[in-house]
Amino acid sequence: MKRSAMNAAIRAAEETLAAHRWALPAWAGWSPQDHRDNSDLSAWLRDRQLGWDVTDFGQGDFAARGLTLFCVRNGGQGPDERPYAEKLLFVGVGQETPFHAHKIKLEDIIVRGGGTLCVEFSRQGAVLDGTPDEVRIDGVPSPIYDRIHRLTAGQSITVPRGVQHRFWGEDAPVFVGEVSQCNDDFGDNYFLEPLGRFTAIDEDAPAHRLCWNEAP
């Protein structure tokens, strides 16, 4: 993915945040030089997978299959770590996050604003035994399979562990929140297809922001 395209995706996300009056920590606005000047904190953030993230899942078509994220908080194993995570997701119209599942992470996906978020579950590729037949939307049970769950602003869906799920924006870009157990993008993403979680970058422009896995 070209760095210029990643820059554009992050700038679009920053515009969405400004439109919704949603403020981020000061380090969300760091330049690459700021990361170098604050190397201890930058390393702490990187180790917890905190910060910006732009991916095309290795497919080379960000508009069709891609996602822009910002991880606000995330913990890890150990008594002094937070056992939870919070992310913000910026989902384009028809921009799919492909089918994937988590063994450890239980998550709520919350539509904070914008258009309609479509969420679909697959019977294939379950990574745990005994997956449920129902899913809860704002606490209300609904059959999980053979339908597209359409969520509008304020609605949330609890994604069961082990179940393959995908999502995309239907009618307008969607501003999405995620609240979950600790997030591990290295070890707890199980794609239904052989996809890549991280993007190979073509450095055709200076970086506007670094992604969390690029922090020095």
Number of helices: 3
CATH-scheme architecture: Sandwich
Q: Given this structure, which CATH class is correct?
A: Mainly Beta
Strand order of the largest sheet: 1-2-3-12-5-10-7-8
Keywords: Carbohydrate metabolism, Isomerase, Manganese, Metal-binding
Pfam family, one: Lyx_isomer
Organism: Donghicola tyrosinivorans
Protein name: D-lyxose ketol-isomerase
Topology overview:
Layout: H1 3-19, H2 32-37, H3 39-47, E1 51-55, E2 67-74, E3 84-91, E4 97-101, E5 107-114, E6 117-122, E7 134-137, E8 140-143, E9 149-151, E10 156-159, E11 164-169, E12 174-181, E13 190-191
Based on the model shown, name its key terms.
five-stranded antiparallel beta sheet; alpha+beta; Jelly Rolls; 13 strands; eight-stranded antiparallel beta sheet; 15% helix; 216 residues
Short structural description:
This protein has 216 residues and is an alpha+beta fold.
Walk me through what this model shows.
By secondary structure, the chain is α+β, with helices and mostly antiparallel strands. Helix content is 15%, strand content 33%. The protein contains three helices and 13 strands. A hairpin with a 2-residue loop joins strand 7 and strand 8 (140-143). It is globular and about 50 Å long. 32% of the residues are buried. It holds the Pfam family Lyx_isomer. One of its GO terms (molecular function) is D-lyxose ketol-isomerase activity.
